[in-house]
Amino acid sequence: MKTRTYRNRFKTKLPTTMEEIINEVIATQDIMKFERKYKKEEAIGKVEATTQFEYAWCLVRSQYKNDWKKGVVLLEELYHTGDNHAKRDYIFYISIAHYKLKNYEQALKFCKAILHVEPQNHQAKQLEELIKKTEKKEAMAGMAIVGGAGLVVGVGVAALGVLAAALASRSK
After folding, report:
1. How far is Cα 68 from Cα 101, in angstroms, rounded to an integer?
2. Which stretches in the chain have pLDDT values below 50?
3. CA dist., res. 155 & res. 92, Å (int)
4. Helix axes 49-60, 28-43, angle to 10 degrees
5. 99 with 66: CB under 8 angstroms?
6. Which residues are CB-neighbours of 90 under 8 A, at least 6 positions away?
7. What is the Cα–Cα distance from 97 to 106, expressed in whole angstroms?
8. Residues 79/90, Cβ–Cβ less than 8 Å
9. Which of these, 50, 62, 58, lies nearest to 25 by C-alpha position?
10. Which alpha helices (H) appear in 16-64, and where do they start and end?
11. pTM of the predicted model over 0.85
């Protein structure tokens, strides 16, 4: 089961960079189309792995956080019950969903699982690089916020000291 074959069902150009893959948003009507198909099969008690993957793949590419979470659940279920040949796709999109959810540790874990089996997988390498870069950038931003807060507190304490000294000299 190759992801590119599913792309033919949508009227979008193929993303070329990992950032484009991560930021790709699917149209709501496409999600609804695959949701109807999934729910129809679910109602008769037999959801095909392909249907579940298509729906999960759409959810991961949604603009909504709750859809990403639901996509992860469906993909993890497929990983345990679905086609062994498609496990790489399941793991890849689980990793992307975790990245979007800012669960970078989880995203990296799934990405490394792909690289363990396919060390030369260029998409997994790009995703791993992006995850690490984003983690580093967010850590730096966090340190800047903490440093800035420390500076504000320090300036506040200094201002209070100056104010206290001025009041003390007035009272003499």
Report:
1. 7
2. 1-5
3. 47
4. 150
5. no
6. 53, 75, 76, 78, 79, 82
7. 10
8. yes
9. 62
10. 18-23, 28-43, 49-60
11. no
Residue 152's identity, in one-letter code, is V
| CA-to-CA dists, residue 77 to 27, 82, 108, 144, 165, angstroms | 24, 8, 19, 40, 67
Residue 30 buriedness (CB in 10 A; 0-12 / 13-18 / 19+): middle
Q: What is the pLDDT of residues 46-58, one digit of tens each?
A: 999 999 999 999 9
CA nearest to 100, candidates 122, 130, 121, 123 = 130
Report the CATH architecture of 3-145. Alpha Horseshoe (1.25)
Tokens of 112: 């490394």
